[in-house]
Specification:
about 375 residues, about 25% strand, alpha+beta, Glutaredoxin
Length: about 375
């Protein structure tokens, strides 16, 4: 999920106050003091972070001693970042009217060495960023060691241990982030923090943060945009008529969803590169074998990039698993993705005989999917 962060930040209007005297600094303004060792006369750039990664440059300071102060007139709480041109990585922080922010680090690698402070929220954000950095350093080292073993053909023996160590590290990071956002659900920096969370697994967390931010930042562009995204993610199409489609099966025959009116339909949207999708095939086969017929049918819609090799993979998968239900291929799939609001694979939903969506969600998997279909048509 990298990163809903840049897609949720809306434009915020700020005015640079480079020409103002220190004595003119009022409660509506924001001060960012930096102290960067070994800066060696390099420039430091301050930006306001806008939506879609369209950053607004506010000021540039060239400092011989590594010290400087940015001053901007802040209209509302927003995200800012400083960076040294030519270096990878930015130091991001939260600023609001009246704040005095402090940033320190080393000029040869500001991102890795940075420390942010000055407000309670930025103190917390600094701790979060430090934890994420340390986790990345550790997981990157694991990847390097695994690559070395791979070159020596020793990686298979290490695979289980590697996956366990890597998984444990990412789970610790996830728990740290969860604690961060839930301990202070209304803090502005949660817009950044939640970007590492899984939107399906942590649906309730996203909804808690959304509600808290809406209450704490009414009529704030960033928060409103975040709310719109959360609403779109979790809006249900249950009760609505499923959009019709016409796609080709492996025999190049045109198949339309409307052809199945009068039957319950399990719609399965999948992708050839999705391991959980492949793992679900035996269960779908069991459901089709037991309930498929005049009253029920599975339609699997494979959505892939439009290239012949991928379509061949799709055909081979169907041959390998001897799928005995309706299979269609959607080359590109943009219309289907939009019409059915597909965000991940597999996505499954149940249609009634009139083509209305009566159930949808990640619970339609495995044994649960079997029980749902059995309840609908098993005793008819």
């Amino acid at each position: 999920m990298k990163s809903i962060w840049y897609s949720i930040l809306a434009s915020i209007f700020l005015l640079s106050c480079n020409n103002k005297n220190n004595n003119e600094f009022s409660n509506g303004n924001l001060s960012i003091n930096f102290n960067i060792d070994e800066l060696d006369g390099q420039k430091v750039v301050l930006e306001l972070v806008n939506s879609g990664r369209k950053h607004t440059q506010l000021d540039t300071i060239e400092s011989e001693d590594g010290k400087g102060t940015f001053k901007v007139e802040a209209l509302k709480t927003a995200f800012y970042q400083i960076y040294i041109p030519g270096q990878e990585g930015e130091v991001m922080f939260v600023g609001q009217p009246g704040d005095f922010i402090s940033i320190s680090g080393k000029g040869n690698n500001l991102y890795a060495s940075s420390k942010i402070g000055g407000t309670p929220e930025n103190d917390r954000l600094d701790s979060l960023v430090a934890f994420i950095k340390s986790t990345k350093f550790y997981t990157d080292s694991l990847k390097r060691e695994f690559k070395k073993a791979e070159k020596k053909q020793m990686h298979f023996a290490l695979l289980e241990e590697y996956e366990e160590l890597y998984g444990n590290a990412k789970r610790k990071e996830e728990n740290y982030v969860l604690n961060y956002v839930l301990k202070n659900p209304s803090q502005f920096s949660n817009l950044l923090a939640v970007s590492s969370l899984h939107k399906i697994r942590h649906k309730k967390v996203f909804q808690i943060i959304d509600s808290a931010l809406i209450n704490n930042f009414p009529q704030h562009e960033d928060v409103d945009k975040f709310h719109d995204i959360i609403t779109e993610w979790y809006s249900s199409d249950v009760g609505k008529k499923a959009p019709n489609f016409t796609l080709l099966n492996p025999k190049q025959e045109a198949i339309s969803l409307s052809d199945y009116k009068g039957k319950y339909v399990l719609l399965d949207f999948w992708n050839t590169g999705c391991r959980p999708c492949i793992q679900e095939i035996p269960n779908l086969k069991r459901i089709q074998n037991e309930f498929g017929g005049d009253k029920f049918e599975i339609i699997s819609v494979c959505i892939d990039r439009n290239n012949p090799s991928t379509q061949e993979v799709w055909k081979k998968i169907n041959e390998k698993y001897e799928t005995n239900w309706t299979q269609v291929y959607d080359a590109g799939g943009l219309a289907t993705l939009k019409n059915y609001k597909i965000k991940h694979y597999p996505t499954m939903m149940i249609l009634d005989p009139n083509g209305k969506i009566i159930d949808a969600g990640d619970h339609i998997r495995g044994e649960k999917a079997y029980e749902i279909v059995k309840k609908l048509v098993g005793n008819e």
